[in-house]
Amino acid sequence: MALSAKPADPGAPIPAASCSSASASVTAPGATAAGAASLAGLLLLADSRLPAGGHVHSGGVEALVDRGLLRDVDDLAAVLDARIRTAGLVAAAFAAVGALRPPDWPTWDVAIDVRTPSPALREASRAQGVALLRTAGAAWPADPALTALRAVARRPHHPLVLGAAAAAAGATPTQAAALAVHHLVGGAASAAVRLLGLNPLTAAGVQAALAPLSDRVSDQACAAATEAVAADDPDLLPSDATPLPEILAELHDASEVTLFAS
């Protein structure tokens, strides 16, 4: 599987007409009766209080803070902007794939491995995936995609589980992509507040300022996922990345004392 070194342009036109704005109404063809068109279910998945283990992960923020690379709110804004365009785009695309419910889950799960060189980051993604799958299984026990995912992937990656859970809640693929970006931004901002003592209101302002970029990336991710699933080809999904988060994840994993698991 070839990885493209050229980052995608989040402002580029969206080729797939089926991918509407992340703010569109919640309608998911084929969603289960229990979860169809459920705004409450979508909000549940976006809630940081959901018992899925996300609160123990900083999204790489702790490693940045420990090495003096993230010191204030301006640094946080720059880090989040870069992460949305790279790791956020990739995670969002795979969440959209999960919402589209491909027939061969392991193929797409392996495609996330290929895009995640750091063993520590792969483990963090799988740990969160297992926790979320357990929670989503309790929330939507009759959903066929979640049942299939549990059966074929023992420890699936978090973006795929998030997408499948979002679809069970009645979300569109674009909304699943938006959830993935929301988790990345929200988790990192929350960790920065805890680690640096930032003003929570200021951190919230940073998140709000990044909302237009998050929406564009969510739409782009859905377009890529729609094309890739239609062609049954994970190579068509984005692979945008920078090496620093991967390196810092390994250094963080080797640290003796940390507040967050990743």
What is the third-level CATH name, the topology? Urease accessory protein UreF
- Measured between the Cα atoms of the first and last residue, the distance is 27 Å
Using the CA coordinates, give the radius of gyration: 17 Å
User: What percentage of amino acids are in beta strands?
Assistant: under 5%
Main sheet record: none
Q: Which structural class should the secondary elements be placed in? A: mainly alpha
- Arithmetic mean pLDDT: 85
Helix content estimate: 55-70%
Looking at the structure, what is the overall shape? globular
The residue ranges in which pLDDT falls below 50 over 5 or more consecutive positions are: 1-17, 23-37
Q: Can you name the CATH architecture?
A: Orthogonal Bundle
Q: What is the number of helical segments per DSSP (H or I, 4+ residues)?
A: 11
Number of domains: 1
Written as H for each helix and E for each strand, in order along the chain, the element string is HHHHHHHHHHH
Give the topology, please.
Blueprint: H1 39-46, H2 61-66, H3 73-100, H4 105-114, H5 119-139, H6 144-152, H7 158-168, H8 173-196, H9 200-209, H10 211-231, H11 243-253
Helix pairs in contact: 3-7, 3-8, 3-9, 3-10, 5-7, 7-8, 8-9, 8-10
